[in-house]
Amino acid sequence: TLDPSFWNLISLYERVMDSLTFNGLLQCNPRVIRAVACVVSGPAVDMPLFMQTMSLTRLRALSIPNCDITDDHLVYIISHASSQLIHIDLTGLAVTDRVLRCIAATCPDLAQLNLRMMTRITNDGVLAIVRSCRKLKILNVAWSGLTGACIRELVTLLPELVEVDLSGSGDNLTDDDILALTVTCKKLQVIEISDCYALTDSAVQHMIDNCAHLFAVSMSRCH
């Protein structure tokens, strides 16, 4: 049945699907799509017309870490979702800034975003989201190759953050960036900054001085 009341969650693991099968699942209009290490083969343009005109009005969460999926498929999902899509996890995907620009244009109420280990995205795509999705509470951009300039702008634009992961920034994250982050984001509870080699004791002091709600910090290999 395609009755939406039966399709609150679609959960898949290591499944290989063609475009027709995948878009048949989308037609169920679920609240949550969770797919781990799945493969969607074939072009998104092969969708029947009735699927192309469908709206994912109930979709609240899209979690597809380590999937093999194209920009076209993701842009289709995100652009057909309502503005109530608040959770997106794209960990490890080989997609581009085109997807990030679509998120920026479509998801004004986005609260949680995971871009961990997405090596094909750029500063421009990440900043497009940060500038548009100012309600973000949880942001993970670990090991995504962001430059120092991008990080410096990012940390001053999201005052509602409660969790942030900037791990893997190497020499691009500095003590001054941590100062800007902690002064702007007074609600921070979790900060993950492992493998950030430019940080010193001053970064720790900034967190102590400015983060009254902080209860977890990860700083492995910051030396």
Describe this structure as you would to a colleague.
The protein has helices at residues 19-26, 49-52, 71-80, 97-106, 123-132, 148-154, 175-184, 201-210, and strands spanning 9-13, 16-18, 32-36, 39-41, 61-63, 87-89, 112-114, 138-140, 163-165, 190-192, 216-218. A 9-stranded parallel β-sheet has the order 1-3-5-6-7-8-9-10-11, with no helix packed on it. The longest helix has 10 residues, at 71-80. Helix content is 31%, strand content 17%. Helix 3 (71-80) packs parallel to helix 4 (97-106). The mean pLDDT is 90. The chain is of the alpha/beta class. It is built from 8 helices and 11 strands. The termini are far apart.
Task: Summarize the helices and strands and which ones pair or pack.
Layout: E1 9-13, E2 16-18, H1 19-26, E3 32-36, E4 39-41, H2 49-52, E5 61-63, H3 71-80, E6 87-89, H4 97-106, E7 112-114, H5 123-132, E8 138-140, H6 148-154, E9 163-165, H7 175-184, E10 190-192, H8 201-210, E11 216-218
Parallel strand pairs: 1-3, 2-4, 3-5, 5-6, 6-7, 7-8, 8-9, 9-10, 10-11
